[in-house]
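Dear colleague,

Following up on Tuesday's group meeting, I ran the structure prediction for the two-component complex that the binding team flagged. I've pasted the input sequences exactly as they went in, so you can double-check that nothing got truncated or mislabelled along the way. The structure tokens for the whole assembly follow below. Feel free to forward this to whoever is handling the docking comparison.

Inputs:
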Amino acid sequence: MAGAVVIASALLTGGCKTTVNTVENAQPSAQKEMVADKRVITDASLARKVYIVGINEARNDSGVLQIQLEVVNQTRSRQRFTYHVQWFDATGMQVSSTTGAILPCVIEGKETRFLSAVAPHPACKDFRVQFMESTR
Amino acid sequence: MKRYLFPVALLALAPLVWTGCSSGGARRIDAGGRESITTVGQVDIQDFVAAAEASVGKLLLSGALDKVPKPPAILAVSLVRNQTGQQFDTDLLTKKIRVKLNTSGKALTTTTVGLDGVAEDPLAKQLQGEQQKTGVTPDFTLSGKIIETRARAGDVRQSTFSFQLSLTDRRGLALWEGEEEITKQGKRPSVGF
């Protein structure tokens, strides 16, 4: 009886633990401009669920800065998290963004995702991204 | 006696710890923040915030606003239709977009040019007429639609809100078009994302 319960629960939880398989070209032609980053980890569990592989940035012709974060879920189960991007000008002052959105995101087990953000003003030089566990 | 000291101290401290995390009383929270209530069948404030943020980001990145002879571009807000079953003022979306575009330095919005000649700021329009000034001709108009799609499986409900926007130039060509979709699923409203 106990064995049946264990098998049944394994089957039930197995439905949620599907992970992501990927394929891509072996020699990508894109040249990413990677950013040297500084990380402050206060939640080790979250850092494993949303591990930051790297950040690259680019400016368009009109000088608008765009950043792209590559994150990977190192666990085998689907995870929910939120992130928030802050922007700073050349003097280090935070550029006020009336709609500084806290964005929810879902990432599957072992999935790699790209999170993009666009600076609200061409004068933005620096950024900081905050990650938090989903509230539910 | 010593034996009971630890559990008693724990019981005394527990309410203090719990009250730090939750309270049923009214309090201020960050608008659109992590404590906001998320509903399934309605567009919540955080949905407007996210849609505006994503739309403006894509619009700025497209460079469409830079294609004017005299920057910054002059933008007039046309009609943004609310096609959802919920009643709300579409300014909840458009104002956020306008403020962000204004802050970006890439576009200025006119408050004297509006659909059917209705100015957002009638006094500014009146003063403009009195001063015999030639009216501003917008470089672009912004129009759009908010659409809702619903689905249900048992007692689980799902709503998708599509925020569709178009930036049209003087030739009548849509120089930029954007669509943001927000899908929410659940049985009942809840707090947080």
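Helices of chain A lie at 2-14, 44-49.

Cheers,
M.
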